[in-house]
């Protein structure tokens, strides 16, 4: 039986969900826990999977696994999104808490645990602070097209120098003495509330150059999110489109998507950058750090091979082969999710953006995607489909969809709407 996703927008979920998880105020004993290597080892390297610019690594919990986790600078305590791990791993929870996060909606329930050990590569940590959601409200597995169990952040990044080689999909990490001179431009960061912040320069329509304080959040798939300016909502440019920006801890987040003329990080200049503008009451009014203007996401960070050195309050940026790729928003208006019941996989439409080519073509929520340009949809990964749907302005797309036990062919052209 198909699970209806009408109420949950997976298409841009990552835009905010990890940022929101970082808002959790847990009274967990942070202590001095950190990852360490056994014996004389001082560094390690593992491969990672990248989906929607997000870094997904294998993590072992209580000597079982591996489990796919998103490695995310925007997270403090470990976040486990799959409550089924409590029973399968025999996790002891100390208490239940209420979490009030960003978005429209009520608080959600979670457990607190200090009973977990975790291993990444040949490094490990015992008693890592963790929050375990009682219900998987994010549906990351559906959104990314692969099983995701949670998010790992601060306790890994604070333990090592961590290098994300996006170009080769390799994660290097180790003690400072194990690294020689780090390649790239050094950019100062500030660690506040377990998370890194950086100052950037931005030129936005109608404004002179602004210096903004941004959360460095490689677990947010967008380029930048602009939340507040001078304690007021960040002005949305005239040339923008309304959009559902994702789902936060407390529900959906509405807003707009536009562009900024330029963004400078250190001395590196990026032009014509996509920007998200969340509704002020859903996000900025709930953010604890009031002098923060927004966050810097993975659509920018993945254009570099980037090294984090929390102890030295530094990150190093070295341009990679993806630096010059254009910043593009979806050009179809279709948001999809994967449903896998263990026997068969399906792609379903979760949302259609108003005024988009898909809406004009008559594609509806809950339609099942059968083929793309006459090739089976299931021959593609979800990320590959999303790339096709933002590939080129004016490109013709032929979709075969299933609706009420009937196959329907829909034809439309991609349109750059922002």
Strand order of the largest sheet: 4-5-10-6-9-8
Rounded to an integer, what's the Rg over CA atoms? 21 Å
Low-confidence spans: 1-31
Overall residue-averaged pLDDT value: 86
Major beta-sheet overview: 6 strands, mixed, barrel
Helix % is: under 10%
Which band does the percent of strand residues land in? 35-45%
Q: Please give the number of β-strands.
A: 31
Tell me the overall shape.
globular
Amino-to-carboxy terminus distance: 37 Å
What is the SS-derived class? Answer: mainly beta
DSSP summary: helix tally: 7
Q: Key features?
A:
418 residues; mainly beta; 6-stranded mixed barrel; 6-stranded antiparallel beta sheet; 7 helices; 45% strand; globular
What does this structure look like?
The chain has helices at residues 14-21, 85-89, 140-144, 154-157, 298-301, 357-360, 382-388; strands spanning 36-37, 43-47, 49-51, 54-61, 64-71, 78-80, 95-99, 108-120, 123-133, 150-152, 161-165, 170-174, 185-188, 190-192, 195-203, 210-216, 224-226, 228-229, 232-233, 241-248, 251-265, 268-278, 294-296, 304-309, 314-319, 334-340, 345-352, 368-372, 375-376, 396-403, 406-413. By secondary structure, it is mainly beta. The strands form five sheets. It has a six-stranded mixed barrel. The longest helix has 8 residues, at 14-21. The chain is globular, with a radius of gyration of 21 Å. The two termini are 37 Å apart.
List the helices and strands and how they pair.
Blueprint: H1 14-21, E1 36-37, E2 43-47, E3 49-51, E4 54-61, E5 64-71, E6 78-80, H2 85-89, E7 95-99, E8 108-120, E9 123-133, H3 140-144, E10 150-152, H4 154-157, E11 161-165, E12 170-174, E13 185-188, E14 190-192, E15 195-203, E16 210-216, E17 224-226, E18 228-229, E19 232-233, E20 241-248, E21 251-265, E22 268-278, E23 294-296, H5 298-301, E24 304-309, E25 314-319, E26 334-340, E27 345-352, H6 357-360, E28 368-372, E29 375-376, H7 382-388, E30 396-403, E31 406-413
Parallel strand pairs: 5-10, 6-9, 16-23, 17-22
Antiparallel strand pairs: 1-9, 2-12, 3-4, 4-5, 4-8, 6-10, 7-8, 8-9, 11-12, 11-24, 13-25, 14-15, 15-16, 15-21, 17-23, 18-19, 20-21, 21-22, 24-25, 26-27, 27-28, 28-29, 28-30, 30-31
């Amino acid at each position: 039986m198909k699970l209806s996703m009408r109420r949950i927008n997976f298409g841009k979920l990552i835009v905010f969900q990890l940022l929101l998880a970082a808002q959790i105020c847990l009274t967990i004993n942070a202590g001095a826990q950190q990852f360490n290597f056994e014996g004389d080892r001082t560094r390690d390297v593992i491969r990672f999977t990248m989906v929607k610019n997000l870094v997904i690594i294998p993590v072992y919990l209580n000597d079982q696994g591996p489990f796919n986790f998103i490695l995310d600078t925007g997270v403090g305590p470990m976040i486990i999104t799959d409550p089924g791990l409590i029973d399968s791993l025999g996790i002891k929870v100390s208490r239940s808490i209420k979490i009030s996060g960003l978005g429209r909606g009520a608080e959600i329930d979670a457990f607190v645990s200090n009973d977990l050990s975790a291993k990444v590569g040949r490094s490990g940590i015992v008693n890592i602070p963790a929050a375990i959601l009682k219900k998987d409200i994010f549906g990351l597995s559906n959104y990314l097209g692969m099983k995701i169990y949670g998010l790992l952040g601060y306790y890994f990044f604070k333990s090592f120098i961590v290098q994300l080689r996006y170009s080769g999909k390799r994660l290097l990490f180790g003690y400072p003495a194990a690294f020689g001179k780090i390649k790239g431009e050094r950019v100062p960061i500030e660690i506040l509330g377990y998370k890194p912040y950086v100052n950037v320069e931005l030129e936005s329509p109608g404004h002179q150059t602004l210096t903004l304080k941004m959360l460095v959040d490689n677990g947010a798939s967008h380029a930048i999110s602009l939340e507040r300016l001078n304690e007021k909502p960040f002005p949305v440019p005239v040339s923008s489109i309304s959009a559902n920006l994702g789902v936060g801890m407390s529900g959906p987040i509405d807003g707009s998507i536009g562009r900024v003329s330029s963004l400078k990080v250190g001395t590196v200049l990026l032009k014509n950058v996509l920007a998200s503008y969340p509704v002020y009451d859903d996000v900025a009014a709930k953010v604890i750090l009031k002098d923060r203007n927004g966050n810097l996401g993975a659509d920018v960070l993945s254009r570099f091979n980037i090294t984090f050195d929390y102890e030295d309050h530094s990150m190093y940026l070295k341009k990679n082969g993806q630096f010059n790729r254009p910043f593009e928003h979806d050009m179809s208006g279709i948001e999809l999710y994967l449903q896998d019941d263990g026997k068969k996989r399906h792609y379903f439409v979760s949302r259609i953006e108003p005024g988009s080519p898909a809406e004009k073509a008559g594609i509806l929520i809950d339609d099942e995607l059968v083929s793309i340009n006459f090739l089976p949809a299931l021959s593609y990964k979800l990320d590959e489909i999303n790339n096709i749907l933002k590939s080129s302005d004016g490109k013709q797309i032929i979709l075969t969809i299933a609706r009420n036990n009937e196959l329907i062919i829909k034809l439309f052209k991609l349109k750059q709407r922002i």
